[in-house]
Amino acid sequence: MAATTTRIATTNGRRYMIQLCKHWAHKFAVTQEGDQGVVPFAEDRRCLLAADDAGLGITIEADDADALPRLQEVVIDHLKRFAFREELGESVWTPVG
């Protein structure tokens, strides 16, 4: 499975993680517990969220590496909608493993 990760510096990481999980729970079997969330977009692709006092970690996993850029775009676009009062800066994605 291919994966990329980014970290968003924000003191609102937990709030954004909860909002993202609640938003996608209408379409997917989202799990969220404490500071962790998982959004299974499909059987072969998912988004892992981890929040703390300093930010929000986002990891995207997919069987097909070609799907990663589009998934990254979708997740960041949704995050920016929830964080419209805050400038989050550019997301820098790094391959995992």
From TrEMBL:
Pfam families on file: DUF2218
Q: Which InterPro entries match?
A: UCP028291
- The protein depicted here goes by the name DUF2218 domain-containing protein
Organism, scientific name = Azospirillum doebereinerae
